[in-house]
Specification:
350 residues, alpha/beta, Rossmann fold, 2 domains, seven-stranded parallel sheet, five-stranded parallel sheet, 10 helices, Glycosyltransferase involved in cell wall biosynthesis, glycosyltransferase activity, Glyco_trans_1, transferase
Length: 350
């Protein structure tokens, strides 16, 4: 049993979020393997419920108020009083613990400055959000001595962080797809599924152009929004085609989950998706190329109308690729190896 506590700061998201799910999963894996980890939420009754979990959750409104005031140069008396009150009702974070922050927060080194930090960066393209133009190297938490590690989820993100911060320690975990939920089905229907909150400006154009050009098509367009994990999987198992609107992604889970369910995925790779978009079993589209996107949808629907098994077989190959390369066991192995190394370095710095 490893006694040093690990707290994962988890943002509030009104919609189902793959990034939040990954935070929960890492906490579960750590606790399963003898670490002492917990998710920190802001409110006392807060827990993600759109996917099944028994993850250890604690609450600290004081910490989240500190995050909110990060970029405030001066606090009013009322804000200071509010902080004092929240500190009184929140648990104290142990000085020898490790705080894990997502990439969306900026000057995290100002929060609990003597506590060691790890950055779980699930989208490298958010790394500099909150930092003004002309910030110095000392401003970035990635360059701080008490930032023990940056954990990323793709080769693209690893290259990005290593290029931006050559002296920081960065390791990549291979995300795992839950094959008990997202698994291959050959019982496909003429359904084109997509996530409407991703690049809605593009998806509106692409779907409207497709429907304008194919007015008599019997293909059903199915947006996936505000669904549970199991509901998403059920739709993907029925859908013959999934549209990817990846955009500057740290990884891009939706198209990978769609591939795992046997969908023929058409669309944007979003940088990180270059590692799993393969023309053998998917149809990558140059980011932002609306007309190419439409034409590739048309091509796939015509092939399916003529010979469904041709598209279904591509989906089968995609599923085999995903379930061979993005396994839960690989993810767990990577997480444990990285955190054993982090704990060793934390002890060495004492």
């Amino acid at each position: 049993m490893i006694s040093r506590k690990i707290y994962f700061v988890c943002p509030t998201n009104p919609h189902p979020s793959g990034g939040v799910k990954q935070i929960y999963r890492m906490v579960d894996i750590l606790n399963k393997n003898g670490f002492d980890a917990a998710v920190i939420h802001k409110k006392a009754d807060q827990r993600e419920t759109w996917f099944p979990n028994n993850t250890k959750v604690v609450h600290n409104p004081y910490l989240f108020k500190l995050i909110k005031y990060l970029d405030k140069k001066k606090l009013s008396i009322s804000k200071k009083l509010k902080l004092m009150y929240l500190k009184k009702i929140s648990f104290s974070i142990e000085t020898d613990s490790i705080l894990v922050f997502p990439e969306i927060y900026s000057s995290i080194n100002k929060i609990e400055p003597f506590t060691k930090k790890v950055i779980f960066n699930q989208n490298c393209y958010y790394t500099f959000n909150g930092f003004p133009l002309g910030s110095s190297a000392e401003d970035f938490p990635y360059n701080k001595k008490n930032t023990l590690e940056t954990i990323v989820v793709s080769e693209d993100s690893k290259n990005y962080i290593q290029t931006a911060f050559p002296n920081t320690s960065v390791h990549r975990i291979r995300l795992g797809i839950n094959a008990s939920i997202f698994n291959f089905s050959e019982n496909k229907e003429k359904i084109i599924a997509f996530m409407p909150r991703k690049l809605s400006e593009d998806s509106t154009q692409i779907i409207n152009i497709f429907q304008s050009r194919n007015n008599n098509s019997d293909w059903k367009i199915m947006p996936i929004d505000n669904k549970s994990e199991n509901e998403v999987a059920e739709i993907l198992k029925k859908a013959a085609i999934f549209l990817s609107f990846n955009h500057k992604e740290g990884f891009g889970l939706p198209p990978v989950e769609a591939m795992s369910c046997g969908c023929y995925v058409i669309g944007y790779r979003g940088q990180a998706g270059k590692e799993y978009f393969n023309s053998e079993f998917s149809a990558p589209v140059e980011d932002g190329n609306i007309l190419e996107f439409v034409l590739k949808i048309e091509e796939a629907t015509k092939v399916y109308d003529r010979n469904p098994h041709e598209i279904i077989n591509k989906g089968r190959i995609a599923s085999e690729f995903v379930l061979a390369n993005y396994t839960i066991s690989n993810e767990e192995k990577d997480i444990i190896n990285i955190w054993n190394d982090i704990m060793t370095r934390a002890e060495e710095q004492e």
